[in-house]
Structure formats: structure tokens, C-alpha cells
Amino acid sequence: MEKMGDTWRGVEKITRTALVLEALCAAPFEPLELVDLKILSYKSSLLMALASAKCVGGLHALSVQRSCTQFTPGDSKVCGTDNVTYDTSCELFATKCNLEGTKRSHRLHLDYTGPCKFIAPCMDAELVQFPLRMRDWLKNVLLHLYEHDSMSPGFLILKQRIRVRKIHESERRLHAGDHPIELLAQDFEKNYNMYIYPVHWQFAQMDQHPSDRFLSHSELAPLRVPLVPMEHCTSRFFQECDADKDKQVSFREWIHCFGIKDEDIDVNLLF
Ligand SMILES: [Ca+2]
């Protein structure tokens, strides 16, 4: 959960172009005559992208890795959707920018953090269980933020607090834990109302670049990327959420993916 929080803070950072420019003027880029060609090409690609306003989605996605905005060397390998391991997410997005306009560029996204590895195929029976766990997890993330917020305010806005307080104060709620699937399914039936806001909340957190009620691949990245290596059904789940296969997950598609009923879809809950 801490990791997810960091990711979101990172997303805010990338919107500050000044930060990127500042980082480009510091180590490992300068002095240029001493750096190797690879580092120099990262810098050129990024400057080109910034100057031409191309690759905006890619630049947004760069923020998935904080190390990338800071350009520090380290163990930050990532796996692309082309199943190639890149040394850093910067290298992946620089590659994507360089291929701009080609099919390969279009298909290349950050798949997950860490070097590429074998990810077992997700079976139908497992896929059914995925939203149950994810829904429970979303609710727990919010409860966790609520508890932090009670100690030091700033994690939630007032409207969010009011919503989460209702869940927190309920005596019937299922407390965080490693619960069997049957119990999660039972709780969803019994405490269905508690899951409506967390599902809306997660959508609103991601739908910001732009805020158009559709989630693009790069908008989903902050949630997807850390999950893929831990939950092997992540990719298949998000692919199947996109029911009409337009490469975006619409608000309605997202809500349906989590078993929330049509009558409970509420755009006023997107905060
Ligand atoms: Ca969007």
C-alpha cells in the first residue's frame, strides 16, 4: 500500500516539467563529454519529447518509476509488453518515443516492474476470483488511508473521509486479512454497499490524464504495473474489462468488472 501511495505522488511530480528539466541538467547527464552514449540518447529523446509535446502519455507513464524522474542508476529494470527487459523505465519510454508512429511503438507499454519473467497463464477459475480480491483490497486501501488521515490529515479530502467513515464505523465490515475466496464472495453479498465507493474512487484516481471517464493504458499503469508480478491474472483481467476492445476501459466497463450493479453507477461518486 505504501508503494501505491508513492506511485501516485510520483504521478503528480511528472506534471512538473521543471522537475524533469532540472533532473536533465544534473548527474548522470552532466558533464556530457564524460557520459556514455546510452545516457546521452536518453536525454536527447526526453528533450525531443518535451520540446515536441509528443509522447505525453509516455512521459506521464514515466512517473510510474520515481527513479526515472530522478535519473538515478539502480536496480530498476522493467519488463515491456514486448517481453524485453529494459534497464530502466526511462529506456523503455525513450525507445517508444524513438519509434513514434510505428506499430511497435503503439504496442509497446510498460508491463511490470522488474526483469521479464515467466508469468503463469491465468485460468478461467482464477480470473473469476481476481475481482473479489481486488475489491477487498481497494476497500482496505481506503480504510488504511482513512486511519492514516485520522492521525495526520492530508491523505483524504473531506468528501472522501465522509464516505470512508461510514465503512470504517460499520460493525459488520470484514477486517483486512488473508480471507478465503468464499468469505470474500459472502461479504460482497452481505456488505455490497461498502464496495460501491472504493470501486468508484479507484477509477477517479486514475482517470486524470485526461479526465474523460475512459482509462487509457498509461492511466491504468500506476495500478497495473506493480500488480502484474504479484497477481498473474492482472493483465487478463484488465484486457477483459475492456469489453468493447477499444483499448480503453470506460467508466461503465470498470464498474461492471467489479460486479457493481448498473443502478449503482454514480458519476457523483467520482472523487
Ligand atoms: Ca481518461
What is this structure, in a nutshell?
This protein is mainly alpha-helical. It is 57% helix and 5% strand. It has two domains: 2-113, no CATH class; 124-269, EF-hand (Recoverin, domain 1, Orthogonal Bundle).
Structure description:
It is a single chain. The chain is mostly helical and 271 residues long. The chain has two domains: 112 residues, no CATH class; 146 residues, EF-hand (Recoverin, domain 1, Orthogonal Bundle), CATH 1.10.238. The chain has 14 helices and five strands. The strands form two sheets. It has a three-stranded antiparallel β-sheet. Strands 4-5 form a two-stranded antiparallel sheet. The structure holds calcium ion (CA). The site of calcium ion has 7 residues, from strand 4.
Task: Based on the model shown, name its key terms.
single chain; 271 residues; mainly alpha; Recoverin, domain 1; 2 domains; 3-stranded antiparallel sheet; two-stranded antiparallel sheet; 14 helices; 5 strands; 57% helix; globular; disordered N terminus; binds calcium ion
Arithmetic mean of pLDDT? 82
What radius of gyration results from the CA coordinates? 20 Å
- Which CATH architecture of the largest domain? Orthogonal Bundle
Helical percent range?
Answer: 55-70%
Largest sheet: 3 strands, antiparallel
Tally the structural domains: 2
The CATH superfamily of the largest domain appears as EF-hand
**Could you name the CATH class of the largest domain?**
Mainly Alpha
Note the gap between the termini: 19 Å
Count helical runs.
14
What proportion strand?
Answer: under 5%
Q: Which strands sit side by side, in order, in the main sheet?
A: 2-1-3
Number of strands: 5
Shape: globular
Ligands and ions found: calcium ion
